[in-house]
Design a protein that fits this description.
It is a single chain. The chain has two domains: 10-186, P-loop containing nucleotide triphosphate hydrolases (Rossmann fold), CATH 3.40.50.300; 232-330. The radius of gyration is 22 Å and the shape is globular. The protein is built from 15 helices and five strands. With 334 residues, the protein is an alpha/beta fold. The longest helix is centred in the C-terminal third of the chain and has 19 residues, at 256-274. Strand 3, helix 7 (145-156) and strand 4 (162-168) form a beta-alpha-beta unit. The N and C termini lie far apart (53 Å). The structure holds zinc ion (ZN). Zinc ion binds next to helix 3. Residues 50-52, 58-62, 64-65 line the site of zinc ion (ZN).
């Protein structure tokens, strides 16, 4: 798979330009997921490596840019969970690929310490191009303490001119020592008009885009990802009523992590409505008339506690049913 050479969203383009004007050898791009951390970090790494960069980013034409687009740049080291490397089309090292091909183990959801050690070795080799080396860590919160500590010294005193770009949507999960060695950039949220126009250009029709943009809570890449999952505006709008009838609805379409996050959005709106405030993610006509503040608050606490274990379900089917049953209870009036 090739790196997408589609133009960056305008708000990411503005952020790229400002990052390129600033000094710094290690940037941490942070903010809620769905704001384009991966796209911005890629564009920054590509521009750093480009032989003829513009103020607005990489030239897109030089051998370095072409190598980057093919995911074969010799001066670029990506540190990602194997699951991310596979889905984003970044090559794995030979040994890892062999182990996965032989089904000796499943792709790791975390950044493995072996990969961090390879990165340290990479940073000590002589770089080939004229623009130094780049280490791209995505997402940095998928490093455990051992992996993060392996990285620390190189991050603090990079040999030669190695630069780092890290992404995260859970900055609180990073070691403070990692955070303190990076300059932080808070991902910007586009305004409604800009995001809706961009979603249209990406092929999301206006009537779909408006509902899903609202559902996203202001995260344009979330909308695109969900449209790719097959989510429609109608499914989103009808979901609260389906849950109230005891049907799982969307939960069957979404990943457990996304399903739980969507339940939290619904719960947020039930709480808001029960306290006389406006809902944020759903339109009022799609929500129960008078939800109970007590039930909604109780459910919110339960959902919060589930977040920590969502990636390790004992039985995905049972879990989904249990969540649907619980949602139905929460939506009853007092
Ligand atoms: Zn270039």
């Amino acid at each position: 798979m090739l790196e997408s050479t589609a133009p960056l969203a305008p708000w990411l383009q503005r952020q790229l330009r400002s990052l390129l004007m600033r000094q710094g050898h290690a940037w941490l791009l942070q903010g809620p997921s769905g704001l384009g951390q991966y796209e911005l970090a890629s564009a920054l790494a590509k521009a750093w490596l480009c032989a003829q960069p513009h103020d607005d980013g990489a030239c897109g034409l030089c051998p370095s840019c072409l190598g980057f687009d093919r995911h074969t740049h010799a001066d670029l080291c990506t540190l990602m969970p194997e699951t991310h490397s596979l889905s984003l089309g970044w090559p794995l090292d030979e040994k890892t690929q062999q182990e996965l091909d032989d089904k000796k183990r499943k792709p790791s959801k975390d950044i493995r310490v072996e990969a961090a050690r390879q990165m340290v070795a990479f940073s000590q080799t002589t770089h080939l191009g004229s623009r130094g080396q780049v280490v791209f860590i995505h997402p940095a919160d998928r490093m455990n303490a051992i992996t993060a500590n392996t990285l620390l010294k190189t991050l603090e005193e990079p040999p030669g001119d190695t630069r780092f770009v890290l992404t995260t949507d859970s900055v609180h999960q990073l070691l403070p020592t990692i955070r303190s060695r990076c300059q932080s950039h808070a991902m910007q949220v586009p305004d409604d008009a800009e995001a809706l126009a961009w979603l249209n250009v990406q092929g999301v029709p206006s009537e779909q885009a408006e509902v899903l943009w609202r559902a996203s809570g202001g995260r344009p890449n979330w909308v695109l990802d969900r449209v790719r999952d097959g989510l429609s505006a109608e499914q989103w709008s009808q979901w609260p009523r389906q849950l109230a009838r005891g049907q799982a609805g969307l939960l069957e379409l979404l990943s457990p992590t996304e399903g739980l996050a969507s339940l939290q959005k619904l719960c947020h709106d039930l709480l808001a409505l029960s306290l006389g405030a406006a809902p944020r993610f759903f339109q009022p006509q799609h929500l129960p008339k008078s939800p109970s503040p007590r039930r909604a608050a109780l459910w919110a606490a339960e959902l919060q506690a589930l977040v920590r274990h969502v990636e390790h379900p004992y039985n995905a089917g049972l879990q989904l049913q249990a969540w649907a049953v619980r949602a139905r209870l929460a939506m009853r009036p007092d």
